[in-house]
Write a structure and sequence with these properties.
Blueprint: E1 7-12, H1 18-43, H2 58-84, E2 90-95, E3 100-106, E4 114-120, E5 124-132, E6 138-145, E7 150-152, H3 162-176, E8 180-184
Parallel strand pairs: 5-8
Antiparallel strand pairs: 1-2, 2-3, 3-4, 5-6, 6-7
Amino acid sequence: MNNSIKIINQRITGARNLSSYFILLLLLIGGIGFFLAGLSSYLNINLIKITSTENIRFIPQGITLLFYGTAAIGIAAYLFFTIIWDIGSGYNEFSKIEQVVRIVRLGFPGKNRTIFLSYDFQNIKNIKFVIKQGLNPRCNIILVLKDKREIPLFPAQIFLSPTELEKKAIEISNFLELPLESFIM
């Protein structure tokens, strides 16, 4: 690690990532399809030209399709706004000049849209690199404070390889001159 570096700034990608766009598109297409199929069964008109909906009875299949279609469209609208507002984006800044770590994230619009956390170097106990194995494997770098609070440095939806994240953990640990702990769960 180069000792002449005084500030490390890490950009954090928020909701504007490829998987969010893909899930939005999938929910919107599926939701509209389900909604139109349910509405077709109620109106006895085929609103979907690529398939036949004449065998769908409104009670119970049609009403179920309407419900699931409406729910999917609602979730897609929520995801659309999180992408537009770029929820979760921000940066981590480690400054040797000011002896402070800053964690900044964007939240939902309002008077407290920007989430700003700041910690002095002397309040930081160590850096923890956590790998969670199992059905939904995850890894993250955690800032451990002396009062035993644990602050994750990367959002859960960021999928970095364990080796790439481990390199970042080592870089941060060396920069802050703090011990690095590894946990495999």
